[in-house]
Automatic annotation (TrEMBL):
Transmembrane segments: none
SMART domains referenced in this protein's UniProt entry, alphabetically: Ald_Xan_dh_C (SM01008)
Taxonomic source organism: Flavobacterium akiainvivens
Pfam families: MoCoBD_1, MoCoBD_2
Highest taxon of source: Bacteria
Aldehyde oxidase/xanthine dehydrogenase a/b hammerhead domain location: 209-295
Protein name per its UniProtKB record: Xanthine dehydrogenase
Gene3D superfamilies: Aldehyde oxidase/xanthine dehydrogenase, a/b hammerhead (3.90.1170.50), Aldehyde oxidase/xanthine dehydrogenase, molybdopterin binding domain (3.30.365.10)
GO molecular function term, any single one: oxidoreductase activity
């Protein structure tokens, strides 16, 4: 918190004046990890804090919550409302949610890592419980009774003995003058009336009646439109361009060269500015651009995997984790496995393509759009454009999917650069082809997995991976350290029961841009590690579920396994049915999946059913959890059996959904989702359902056919 001596009289009055019109409360997370502090407007003024209210209640009793994270389909817009309404004791439909602008006062605003609820729910609960207690205290003082004799319900404070009742709006002015209590009593889960219930999402009506504002819907006065022809190879340059045909397209106003920051590299392109998106697209098509693609490698997909394979076969790599001595155990092992698994590059391809509105105004820039990381964009634009951070204003809209791609800073930077050039607000829209061919992508990875088996038991596990490290673009020092996600997806309890384990990364780099993709490295690690454990189980002569039960000895894992066996009928499997199991951990949640397959009349393999059991600890809305797991499975199905990004001469082969096919409704098997009930802290929900699907599917195919699948994607019709 800032010094109290440097606040101006005007600033004090501005902040403190809020207390006369509403109850404003803010959360200030501790940098040391200690419990967050709740402050009101008056305290913020006294301590020279720029108050970013998270919740405020006005004199009409209207409750507004400022959501500092993005809503991109994962349900946080509703979930934070459900949390707010629970402890504040208001009706869910009376909560108004608005998106906060980018500001470091909120703490991290990156919507990623399935972190919105799991990293903030305790602060949300404390914040709203604090507001409730302040309102109760204000009412008690007004009535001259003890606060303990009062309670809150449906936006009112009620005195138990007399039945006196006051609406929150009548109490906010008095409450705003109170010091927030440091310790408030939170409800037990058994006392919740909203949390844990499958309530209908608040954003569903907005998204079905057209009132939800997505990035593509945003309009500002004087706005023009732009499209960009970008170099199809990240490191290439613009040698020359002919804009004559583009400028003849009706509506096209200006054509010029630009460059945008992609990681630590600048991608060059030619911007076409017009009076409509359509005109900009048509002008872009009419451009003639000559590229300079010299000075860097134009790689092919086959070369990528050949080099990765050579890496894991001949190099030890950088160790992320190592316990015991796996090499010694492997050297003297009576039975060994040494297998290779490979996973493909993938595009994010959300239904809503990238887009951003920017308005550069000399000493400041303001952007609007589908943004996952407003604070990161503030940092990036401030540095690139030489602006004060507070003069970079970032506004979030609803997102039509993101999966990690919209947490990046390139597309807002591009829009800001174009706005600066034309001195006007502009909306830049990417086509599907732009997004699919430009990346960045989930990196393709090759794994080498080794095991030592003695007397049917695992003596050692040794894993090596070689693929692009998404951390390398941030800091060159990371190239001296193993990928911090090398073991992502592998369950922690295994370390307690297997004495010799190691994970290492063999560095591999290409000019191809890579970045996070839903569940990040767990989506690829999970396939390799859980497929390998299945092969270890068969080599050891054990049932795959029994092997996991043997080494996942903690109570929480055992209960998960019990549930998986119970719902799927694992122990009563029939002949001509293939069952596969996989269990992965991702962002503090564990998901176990069982896939059942059989043969169609023509002999082709089909998926009969998927059972998923999620242990995410404390959760808000079971319907949202179920929807996220189902969506993750569908996305995992596409990534495992339908699509991949490939490269020829450094260019992407896939251009749109016709060549990067997505699962259709008729491809989706029945999915049954179960949520474990326990008192553990909240884990993530949006991403953890994805990694365990692919290995559960391929393990089931082996159980049915005897064929092992070690490279993704594969085609179901060709098994």
């Amino acid at each position: 918190m800032s010094s109290t001596t440097d606040i101006s009289r005007r600033g004090f009055l501005k902040i403190a004046g809020l207390g006369g019109t509403a109850l404003y409360l803010g959360v200030f997370p501790s940098a040391t990890g200690a419990e967050a502090t709740i402050v009101n407007a008056g305290q913020a003024a006294y301590q020279s804090i720029e108050l970013n209210a998270w919740v405020y209640i006005d004199t009409a009793g209207k409750v507004t919550f400022v959501d500092h994270r993005a809503e991109m389909g994962q349900g946080s817009y509703h979930s934070v409302s459900q949390i707010l309404a629970e402890e504040l004791e208001v009706d869910l439909n009376d909560v108004n949610i608005i998106f906060g602008q980018g500001d470091k006062k909120y703490g991290s605003q990156v919507t990623g890592g399935s972190s919105t609820i799991r990293m903030n729910y305790k602060n949300f609960l404390k914040l709203t419980a604090t507001a409730r207690e302040m309102l109760i205290a204000a009412a008690a003082a007004q009535w001259g009774v003890a606060a303990a004799e009062c309670y809150a319900e449906h936006g009112h404070v009620i005195h138990k003995k007399s039945g006196k009742k006051a609406h929150y709006g009548e109490l906010v002015v008095a409450a705003s003058k109170l010091t927030p209590p440091k310790d408030v009593k939170l409800k037990k889960r058994s006392e919740y009336r909203l949390i844990g219930k499958p309530l209908k999402r608040l954003d569903t009506p907005l998204k079905t009646n057209g009132t939800a504002i997505f990035g593509l819907d945003k309009r500002v006065p004087g706005m023009v439109f732009a499209a960009v022809e970008r170099n199809p190879r990240l490191r290439g340059k613009v040698k020359s361009f002919d804009a004559s045909a583009a400028l003849k397209v009706p509506g096209v106003q200006k054509v010029f060269k630009i460059k945008m920051l992609v990681f630590k590299t600048y991608r060059e392109g030619v911007a076409v500015v017009a009076n409509s998106t359509y005109a900009a697209f048509q002008g872009k098509k009419a451009l003639k651009v000559e590229w300079d693609d010299s000075g860097f490698e134009h790689i092919n997909t086959a070369d990528i995997y050949a080099r990765q394979l050579e890496n894991v076969k001949t190099k030890e790599g950088l160790f992320l984790k190592k316990q015991g001595d796996p090499d010694a155990a492997l050297a003297k092992s009576a039975q060994k496995l040494d297998l290779i698994y490979q996973t493909p590059y993938q595009s994010h391809s959300p239904i809503e393509p990238l887009n951003c509105v920017a308005h550069y105004q000399g000493d400041k820039v303001e952007v609007w759009g589908p943004i996952q990381a407003p604070d990161w964009i503030q940092d990036a634009l401030s540095e690139e454009m030489g602006l004060k951070r507070e003069n970079v204003i970032v506004n979030m809209t609803f997102l039509g999917g993101g999966f990690g791609r919209k947490a990046f800073m390139d597309y807002p930077h591009e829009a800001a650069v174009i706005s600066k050039e034309i001195n006007a607000p502009v909306q830049v829209v990417w086509t599907r082809e732009d997004e699919m061919t430009q990346g960045p992508y989930r990196p393709g990875i090759t794994y080498r997995c080794e095991a030592s088996i003695n007397n049917g038991d695992i003596d050692a596990l040794k894993f090596r991976m070689s693929g692009q490290n998404n951390d390398h673009w941030r800091d060159p020092k990371n190239k001296q350290q193993a990928n911090r996600s090398t073991s992502e997806g592998f369950l922690q309890p295994y370390y307690d029961s297997i004495k010799n384990i190691s994970f290492a990364e063999v560095i591999f780099e290409t000019p191809i841009p890579s970045m996070w993709w839903r569940s990040v490295y767990a989506s690829t690690n999970g396939f390799a590690y859980e497929s390998f454990l299945d092969e270890v189980a068969h080599a050891a002569g054990k049932d795959p579920m029994d092997l996991r039960r043997q080494y996942l000895t903690d109570e929480r894992s055992q209960k998960l396994l019990d549930k998986m066996e119970e719902i799927s009928g694992w122990k009563n499997r029939k002949k001509n049915e293939g069952f596969g199991v996989a269990i992965t951990e991702c962002f503090a949640s564990t998901v176990g999946q069982i896939v059942k397959v059989s043969r169609k009349a023509g002999g082709k393999v089909k998926i009969d059913k998927v059972w998923a059991v999620m242990d995410c600890g404390w959760y808000v809305n079971p319907d949202i959890v179920q929807a996220q797991v189902e969506g993750a499975i569908v996305m995992g199905l596409g990534a495992a059996t339908m699509h991949e990004i490939t490269f020829t001469d450094g260019l992407v082969d896939q251009k749109n959904y016709h060549s990067y096919q997505m699962p259709r409704i008729y491809d989706i098997p029945p999915i049954e989702v179960h949520i474990m009930e326990n008192a553990e802290d909240a884990g993530g929900v949006g991403e953890p359902g994805l990694p365990s699907f692919a290995p559960a599917l391929t393990n089931a195919i082996f159980d049915l056919t005897g064929t092992r699948i070690r490279k993704l994607p594969f085609k179901m019709d060709e098994v």
